[in-house]
Amino acid sequence: MLVLLAGIFVVHIATVIMLFVSTIANVWMVGTSYLGTVSTGLWRLCNNTCEQLPVSSGDEASLKAVQAFMILSIIFSVIALVMFIVQLFTLEKGKRFYITGAIMLVCWLCILIGVSIYTARFTSKVPLSTSSHHGYCFILAWICFCFSFIISILYLVLRKK
Q: Predominant location of this chain (predicted)?
């Protein structure tokens, strides 16, 4: 049981770190142009230098929603990690990890909404580029989506032990 808890703790920390990286870094979409490699993230457009991400007025609300949901997912994941540690040492065996599992499900939902909006609205749009593909931050966000779901289910199953 201790090894299982330690494994879940390590995966949870890795998920938090990957959420930070995927939200902060500017490599959600990568394209090539006559200027070289162009990458876009949630905040900036980077070529040789980084500048504010140019967004049309119709897409601005979608981008703000993606930014908000990714930040919320980080917040909920950190809260769930703190709650895991608190519940591990304070609650008795049949009542542990309900709150942690529920908070991680909210984190999972925030990641799902944020990355889905980005997928629907921005995956084919890299300014100044001729061809584009997904960057590592986009892939990390989907990996965090899977990890947060698995962790939340494990927390809800572990409440019985």
A: membrane
Mean pLDDT throughout 111-128? Answer: 85
- Class of the domain covering 1-160: mainly alpha
Residue 1 contacts by C-beta under 8 Å, 6 or more apart in sequence? 161
- Displacement of CA 156 from its chain's centroid (Å): 21
Element holding 36 (H helix, E strand): strand 36-40
Q: Which of 117, 89, 104, 94 is nearest to 146 (CA)?
A: 104
What is the pTM (predicted TM-score) of this model?
Answer: 0.88
Residues 6+ apart with CB under 8 A from 104: 76, 77, 80, 148, 151, 152, 155
